[in-house]
Design brief:
- The protein has 80 residues and is an alpha+beta fold.
- It has one domain.
- The chain contains four helices and two strands, in the order H-H-E-E-H-H.
- The chain has helices at residues 8-16, 19-34, 59-63, 70-76; strands spanning 44-49, 52-58.
- The chain has a two-stranded antiparallel sheet.
Length: 80
């Protein structure tokens, strides 16, 4: 029996086009605009912790964080 190979590129596109992802992105962008950091080149992103926007992180650490990513915690057997 052959297992169908996953198309990660397609999954990625579908997730980022989903309603939930768009709402999350819009909230973060709005927060950035209100705080005056949207598009000013300071390399900071608003980030979530516990489902709430809690502050700013450098874009590089925010996007590469293994600790703050719920999916990674689940994969390691941590909190759900």
């Amino acid at each position: 029996m052959r297992v169908k190979k996953r198309n990660y590129k397609e999954e990625y596109k579908l997730y980022h086009a989903s309603r939930g992802a768009k709402i999350k992105r819009a909230k973060l962008n709005k927060y950035n605009r209100e705080k005056g950091t949207y598009g000013n080149g300071d390399s900071l992103d608003a980030y979530h912790k516990g489902g709430k926007i809690v502050g700013f992180k450098s874009a590089a650490s925010n996007r590469g964080s293994k600790v703050d990513s719920a999916g990674d915690r689940r994969a390691r057997g941590g909190k759900k």
